[in-house]
Design a protein that fits this description.
mainly alpha, single chain, 2 strands, transmembrane, Marvel, two-stranded antiparallel sheet
Length: about 230
Amino acid sequence: MNGGAYGAGKAASGQGFDGIGFLMRPHVMLRSLCWLFSVIVFACISTEGWTSDGRCQYDGDDSACTLGNAVGVVGFLAASVLLVCDALFDSFSSIKIRRRVVVADMAFCAAWAVMSFVGFCHLSNSWRRARMPYDGYGLNNVRAAIAFCFFAIPAWAGCSYLAYLRYKQGLDASQFMSTYDAAEQPAPDTMAYGQAMGHDGAISDYAQAPFSQTDNNMGQQQAATNPFQAPSY
């Protein structure tokens, strides 16, 4: 994991975007797989999921084709948006924005892992009852949609888990910064000379050095009580 808050990298000033380093990040690689699997699922169903007369290949169950298409299309769009957020994540200066992005990433990926599982179960169950297509039309695409819908389950779940690790890392970093800021506050008994604490607890500067006023008062009292002056020769 990267060293910044919520897994953000520490970009050096004047350094451009590192595309190779970005693509080598574990959550980016997993998200790219989610993007690819989603494209395959909705492409297979859209092209040959229906026959020429508009009948769904999955035993005529239109809900199976619709659900498979929805899982693929929404997964493709969401993976594209999240990849853009990953590319811009290091440039987000606000920790609140980073936290919201990570939480949204974690929640959606977990939800879409569940939706991919539901889609896989529905498609495979409908295909089990379906008749073999005439002349094998769309056979490979129908089976590929089921297979890649299954492959998408661990991919989305892995993205959610990595987002959880980034979220946990961000919480630990926030707690560390809060503790560090509290430790930086000066204690009342360790204030430097030239500072004083007012009645409201605020620290203010004073110009006079310590003991200077006391020394002046003592000198004036001694001069008043002792009129003797040293003779001058």
